[in-house]
Amino acid sequence: MKARLLIAIMIILLLPTIGFAEETTPIDRLEQLSDEALQMVKLHRYEDAKRLLDYFSEQISQSGKGRPLTADELRIITNSYDEAVQATANGTINHNEKINRVTKFRLVMDAITSPNQPLWTEMESPIMTVFGEVKEAVYSGDKEHFHSQLNTFLSLYDVIYPSMKINVDIEQIQRLDTRIHFIDSYRLQVLADEASQQELEALEADLQILFDQMSDDEADPSLWWVIISTGSIIILTLSYVGWRKYKGDREKSREKNRSRGQKN
User: Taking a C-beta distance cutoff of 8 angstroms, is the pair 100, 41 a contact?
Assistant: First the structure.
């Protein structure tokens, strides 16, 4: 009976945690709207995407609950939102560019709601692959391929850049900006000068460090508290149940021994 009581107490203690994890906050709902808008753009349903973005604008102005957004976050959201709206409303922008702009907005909202494992880090493979093509073109002297691949790299980097500014230290962002600006501004020099080509190696190393540090998932301290406390409850419960069973078995064994002694 006591064992059942302890298990019941454990479940009761876990219920608030489970309920909290499932709660949807206003900012989570906004993030969902950004994802729905992106899905509409992928399906070429631009008017539906525009309506979702308009609804997003209404909701963000009314969402007073939850974690307040910082001034920098609001500025980044506003800029990426404006680009997304323009993409869905402007018929002269091609489909791929529409996807890029709305994806940028989608990644920004995710970076705010998922700081430990943001979606923009999933861009590591295409970005690093294209940058490898940039380096290869430089070392082989293929000017046309170099310009083409560098432009592709810059486009991909532009998609994740606003999200990076939410999750990454400003000093790290500025270091990347400096290297990228140099390579982009002095393309011919990078192609011809071995010393300038060292910037390519340095930028590749900085990018890899960036993605590696973001992939080192550190659980939220509150989550660790839940894991530890929950684990402790389970261990204590199982230990108590095992001890009660052991004590009961010993009592039964003693009773049997007493009964045998009395018969003899």
Answer: no
